[in-house]
Amino acid sequence: MEEPRWLSEEERQTWLAVVGLLVRLPSALDAQLQRDAGISNFEYQVMAGLSESPDRSMRMSDLAALSNGSLSRMSHVVKRLERQGWVERGPDPSDGRYTIATLTHDGYQKVVDAAPGHVAAVRRLVFDPLTKPQTRQLREIGHRVLNAVDPDGTCPS
C-alpha cells in the first residue's frame, strides 16, 4: 500500500484558508441578501442565471447544473420563487419531457433591485482586500482548480 502524500505545513495552511473561504463567503453573501432583499444567495443565483439566459428561460436540469444544486432542490426553490410570482414553470415546447423555468417581469425586477447590494458585498468581501495582480491570480487559481474538479467543463462558469 502506497504511503499517503500528506500536506506540508504550508499546503495545510493554504487548504484551511480555502476551506474557510468556501464555508464563510457563501454565508456572508447569504446574510447580505437575506437582510437587504429577503432572498437567499441560492435563490439570487437561480434568478440571476435565468436573467442572463435567452428569453430568461432555462430547462430545470440546466438551471440545477448552473447553480450546483440537485434537481430536487431546484424544484423546491423554484416552487418558492413561483409563489412569489418571480418564476413560472411550463413544459419545454421542443421536448415536453423537460420543464422550463422562466423569470417573470417581477422576478427580473427583484434581481435588478438586489444586484447593487450583492455586488457591493462581493466587492467588499472579495475584491477590495486584493490587489489587481492578486485578483488576476485568484481568477487563474479558480480556473485551474475548477479544471481539476471538472475537467470536462460540465460545470458552467
Automatic annotation (TrEMBL):
Identify the residues that the record assigns to the HTH marR-type domain, covering every copy.
15-147
Identify a single GO molecular function assigned to this protein.
Answer: DNA-binding transcription factor activity
Instruction: Write the record's keywords in alphabetical order, separated by commas.
Output: DNA-binding
Q: Which source organism does the UniProt entry give?
A: Actinophytocola oryzae
Q: Does the keyword Cell division apply?
A: no
Q: Tell me, what is an example of a GO biological process annotation in this record?
A: response to stress
* SUPFAM superfamilies per record: Winged helix' DNA-binding domain (SSF46785)
| Designated name of the protein | DNA-binding MarR family transcriptional regulator
